[in-house]
Amino acid sequence: MSSTEGELTSSSEEELQYASLFKIVLVGQGSVGKTCLIMQYCKNTFETGTMVTIGIEFMTKYVDIHGKTVCAQIWDTAGQEKFRSIPATLFRGSHAAIFVYDVTNYESFEKVQDWIKQADEHCPQKKYYLLIGNKIDRVQDRKVSKEVGERFAKQHNMNFLETSAKTAQNVNQAFLQVLNAIYDMFVTNQDNEEQENNLNIKNVKSDGNIKITEEIKVEKKKKCCN
After folding, report:
1. Is the dihedral of CA 158, 161, 162, 165 positive or negative?
2. Is the pTM of this model over 0.85?
3. pLDDT (tens digit, 9 = 90+) per residue, 179-222?
4. CA distance 179 to 181
5. CATH code of the domain made up of 2-188
6. Is 29 helix (H, G, I), strand (E, B) or coil?
7. What's 136's DSSP letter?
């Protein structure tokens, strides 16, 4: 097995053991480059021409996060209007959502608001959001400035990156940012909570020679959507 920063490869994916599995969904209008981003990250390839996603598809990639092998299950979905009923199922069980728009298509940027609304409605529990402005290699065709994207992301309390699936600019950075964030949200924080719960599971009081032990019930919070 060979490895690079944040990445694990193997001649047989079945051989890899992973500590955690995270579901990441990419949503956005059709033709913004969601499939190309996933292909670039998972396969280091860029397909020229138009690829239309029908329904829901996903790819997996094994990544090293904080010394642990994590399986990233990255879901792609059709952005066409006729597939708008899909996100209800898509968001279920997800840990993060990446909202993608095309910097050369202002309408695709305006549609992001609709996708965020669907994500909030279908899965109100905690998850990580990232906004991506794709196709920054097409400098002359840009319609959405970086400042506009940054301002929108700040207003919606999410991080922001601009990428090019074609040149691979910021693609790895985007996915690693998401994976590191959700690892801390769902694994590191959970481990800390469990350690704290173990310390506080019993509260022993002393009253003279009589010891009273109170059991403290700890209700675990849901970590993702079901």
Report:
1. negative
2. no
3. 999 999 999 877 655 544 444 444 444 344 433 333 333 344 44
4. 5
5. 3.40.50.300
6. coil
7. T
